[in-house]
Amino acid sequence: MKYIIGIGGVTNGGKTTLTNKLIKTLPNCCVVHQDDFFKKPDQIEVGEDGFKQWDVITALDMEAMTNTVKGWIENPVKFARSHGVTLSSPSDGSNPEEQTHILIVEGFLLYNYPPLLDVFNKSYYITIPYEECKRRRSSRQYTVPDPPGLFDGHVWPMYLKHRRAMEECGLNIECLDGLKHKEEIYNQVYEDIQNNLLNRL
To answer: Nearest Cα to 79, choosing from 60, 57, 102?
Structure first.
């Protein structure tokens, strides 16, 4: 069985933290990080707001990301092995292809790219309020540092715009409160995934 989980949400909401905890506890679990598909800085356009447009879908090579997800769908065993993921040994000696294989797709614009929308079996979206998001963002060190005014002038307005579009896409998305303790969010999601997997057997 193949099962694909989307973990989307606001910048610095806790997507990667949750993903990293789930990878350690879910069986045969691979991950695709949207951040790995950012284009090179010289390919990022400057928008009308005066900032380089990092927080829009065109800043990402979404075709390559979609192809990566499709590669997992076609052969999760091969994908796992090529990404250094150890597959659990089936206790009954059955074929690894017949086991449960899980893919987590994690990113800040997961649900704003139509070709990806139909791959998710379960979609989560982490939210945190403006003040907390700005506080967390300002304490992070990025490879390309945020120029002054970027958060208020570009990051937050783009988040609100993309969230509205996501809400109109018709996908059944479960929102998670990013202010809750990390362990509480993890337990909620882990339990939900386990129940969903049992219902599919």
So the answer is: 102
Q: What is the mean pLDDT of residues 93-104?
A: 80
Find the radius of gyration of the CA atoms of the chain: 18
Burial of 72 (0-12, 13-18, 19+ CB in 10 A): buried
> Which run of H or of E encompasses 7?
strand 2-9
Verify whether residue 61 is a known catalytic residue. no
Is residue 32 within 8 Å of residue 68, measured between CB atoms? Answer: yes
Q: Pick the catalytic residue from 35, 49, 152, 177.
A: 35
pLDDT of residue 142: 78
The owner of tokens 């993309």 is 162
What is the SS3 assignment for 97? helix
Between strands 122-127 and 29-33, the pairing is unpaired
* pLDDT of 94: 62
Give the per-residue pLDDT at 38: 95
Write out the two tokens for 189. Answer: 């999601």
Contact 4, 119 (CB under 8 A): yes
Task: Find, among 191, 173, 40, the residue nearest to 117 by Cα.
Answer: 173
User: Among residues of the chain, what percentage have pLDDT more than 70?
Assistant: 96
* 92 has pLDDT over 60: no
What's the pLDDT score for residue 140? Answer: 86
